[in-house]
């Protein structure tokens, strides 16, 4: 039994590194999500540094990307290397919003703002946000998730 597994490992060819777009990665993530069992969370493909586990995505990618891609653990949004700080920031703000809503029962948005912009003062007042983001985040209508894209 053990020899067979070792033999399979030796037979598998290392994946080549090639240029893959964020669209290619997104398609692989969707294929992985469709193929995984229902009791396995999608977050298993996200490493601690928010990079993706390409070994799990390998059957869907057939290659390794030549640049890193990142995924938010909170919103499952995919980011390129240039947006790594945004990926980390969106996770911090989403966690703060979730904690605020758990404590107060209401969303931390600016009063009477038609775009539902997140009120950082409300989050800071409860010590939920260690540092104020430089960009605005908005509350969506989908399960109180946030986005950095201003609603239309």
Quick recap of the structure?
This protein is mainly alpha-helical and 152 residues long.
Please identify the structural class as seen in this structure. Answer: mainly alpha
Mean pLDDT: 91
The overall strand count is 6
Task: Give the N-to-C terminal Cα separation.
Answer: 59 Å
Radius of gyration: 19 Å
Supply the number of helical segments: 5
Q: Report the principal-axis shape.
A: elongated
The H-and-E topology, N to C, reads as: HEHHEEEHHEE
Q: Report the sheet-strand fraction.
A: 5-15%
State the domain count.
Answer: 2
Uncertain residue segments: none
Q: Which strand order does the major sheet show? A: 1-2
Give a quick account of the main beta sheet: strands, pairing sense, barrel closure.
Answer: 2 strands, parallel
Question: Considering DSSP H and I runs of 4 or more, what fraction of the residues is helical?
Answer: 25-40%
Give me some keywords for this one.
152 residues, mainly alpha, 2 domains, two-stranded parallel sheet, two-stranded antiparallel ribbon, 5 helices, 39% helix
Structural topology:
Layout: H1 2-11, E1 17-18, H2 22-35, H3 54-61, E2 64-65, E3 69-71, E4 78-80, H4 84-104, H5 120-125, E5 138-139, E6 146-147
Parallel strand pairs: 1-2
Antiparallel strand pairs: 3-4, 5-6
Helix pairs in contact: 2-3
Task: Walk me through the structure.
The chain has helices at residues 2-11, 22-35, 54-61, 84-104, 120-125, and strands at 17-18, 64-65, 69-71, 78-80, 138-139, 146-147. By secondary structure, the protein is mainly alpha-helical. The chain has two domains: 2-71, no CATH class; 84-147, no CATH class. A two-stranded parallel ribbon has the order 1-2. Strand 5 (138-139) and strand 6 (146-147) form a beta hairpin. Helix 2 crosses helix 3. It starts with a helix and ends in a 5-residue tail after the last strand. 21% of the residues are buried.
